Structure formats: structure tokens, C-alpha cells
Amino acid sequence: MAKNKPVVMIGLMGSGKTTSGRLVAAALGLPFTDSDQYLQDRYGATSAPIAAREGKETLHRYEAEHVLEGLAGEPKVIAAAASTLENPEVRAAMGRAFVVWVDAKDDVLAQRMRTSDHRPDYDPATMRARREHYFHEVADLICDVGVLSPEQVRDEVLRQMGLPGGDHT
């Protein structure tokens, strides 16, 4: 697999999509795009304020737009909001990418979610029950970020893609 294929980082809130995604992008020499930054740049706020202001359906439409636009252009690493997996068009488009599911136990994700005020207040167990089957459907690689560091996720992505640099320790 070549590094000219897009990479999509998926996972529930707090899983480290952005942190791991930035490392993967740097290792591959590809641009990085993150849902939170996209929302801020395009709509003037991150997910929690948009959900409060315009509703969850609108937020999820904006998040899906981010992934579809990212996959339509030159290859890049995309940190995708978990909600995007509920959109069949997004799941189909992810077929063109190498999809990495960064995951951890619900208690780990809940703790991480409390560290940021830009995230809506959601229960990881509820989100997992709603979306886990979609994660399994699209993921090419699953990384347990409860035990793997972001650097180890990067290395595993490179290894699975058959690229040099996947042997860092």
C-alpha cells in the first residue's frame, strides 16, 4: 500500500484521533485535517456550541461534509467525528481510504472527554452501542489506545500499510 492513499482516523470522542492522526500525517508527509478545526474554520465553533446552536443533526451533517470533502481531494489524514459513520455515503467513501479505529474502554474515553470543554457531553457506552457495528464495518486496523501510545499507533499504521518507519520503538 502506498502513502498516496488517504488515511481516516475514526473512534469515539476522547480516543485520540487528532493526536494519533497528526503523527501519522507527519510520518506519511500528508496534510492533516481534523473535524474540530474544520468546524471552527468553516462554522465558527466546535461541536458542542454547534450542537447547542443548530442541533445535533446539523452538526452531524457538517461533520460528514468534512470527511467527504477530505476524501474527495488529494490524499490526507482525516480525523473523522464518530457521527460520520452513521452516514452511508461517508462509509462508502471510506472504502477508498485506509481506516484506523482508535479505541479504548469506555471508562478511559469518559475520563479523556472530561478534559475538554469543546466536546458535547455524551456517554461513551451509549455512543459505542449506537456506532460500534459501523466501526467494525469500515476499519482496516483497530488500535487499543488504552494500551498503545499515539506513537505506537503511528508505527502500527505504517507497519500495516507496509511502509518504512513502522519499526520505531
TrEMBL record:
Record: residues binding Mg(2+): T18
Subcellular location per the Swiss-Prot or TrEMBL entry: Cytoplasm
InterPro entries from the UniProt entry: P-loop_NTPase, Shikimate/glucono_kinase, Shikimate_kinase/TSH1
Cofactor note: Binds 1 Mg(2+) ion per subunit.
Keywords, alphabetical: Amino-acid biosynthesis, Aromatic amino acid biosynthesis, ATP-binding, Cytoplasm, Kinase, Magnesium, Metal-binding, Nucleotide-binding, Transferase
MF (Gene Ontology): kinase activity
Subunit field text: Monomer.
Protein name: Shikimate kinase
Organism this protein belongs to: Nonomuraea maheshkhaliensis
